[in-house]
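Appendix C reproduces, verbatim, an entry submitted by the partner laboratory led by Prof. M.T., so that reviewers can inspect both the input and the predicted structure.
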Amino acid sequence: MKVFTGNANVELAREICEYLDLPLGAATVGRFPDGEIRVKVEEDVRGKDVFIVQPTCPPKTNDYIMELLLMMDSCRRSSANAITAVIPYYGYARQDRKEEGRVPISSKLVANLIGAAGADRVVTMDLHSSQIQGFFDIPVDHLYAAPVLYRHFRKINRSKLVVCSDDGSVKMGMAHSQRIGVPLAVYGKRRISPTEVEVHSLIGDVKGKDVLIIDDVITTMGSIYAAARFLKDRGAEAIHVGATHGAFCGDSLERLKDPAITEVAVTNTVPVSAEAVERGVKVLSVSEILGEAMKRIHEKRSVSSLFQWNNQ
């Protein structure tokens, strides 16, 4: 079993290797003078099960995708036994359908590229929509960061806690509320622009409650910012936000200052900027979940049992 990484999230790869008690595989991932990506795997991988840890995340999403493709091609041409692409954050996931004419389904194209480059399996975490698994013609292990987030938010008094989701995520919100054992409230949301959201209605009671909003990804924080202000106006005492992927960009760092938001916790599927941490973002590690999944794949054991959480 060999674990390699590109430049996207070296620290996460190291944490996974610590969990697995393995050294991180040696590889050169750099640039030629003309900007082309240069990859060389510095270890023998013939007959090995190779795992390449590489989220395709900001700020260099396209470069990180290309690094992943070239590393897989290098391992395939070096006679690796099996190649697993470990993609904690799957870039282009939100471009998963045609919302208007003459636009690509970018998520499907990226899936095709990963398969063509030599991946035998994909491990990923909290896809924006679960049906993206069907874009691949190879096995996909779709993991969840919810157990890590639940452990962090266990400190909140459950007698005052309400899980809140937008009207497009009711199914996910209901799953979280049932697992934690608290009520669910739903707010209506309308997107005005890529960075602006209008929240317009509420089903459920949040007055005097601590609200927990759990989402898959934070980018500009437009949705969370609008929801937090709306829920505060409806009497919520505290707004706790949990997300798997903290891909902070745009005005998100400024919005973190808003007093309506009590705390924000994300995982380390993508590197979180020092500025975000300085503004109070709590970063939780998913290295154990990913490492255990990789270990079970290598040993040909069940991965699905990782989904049987106990949040008590």
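The chain is about 30% helix and 25% strand. Additional entries are available on request from the coordinating office.
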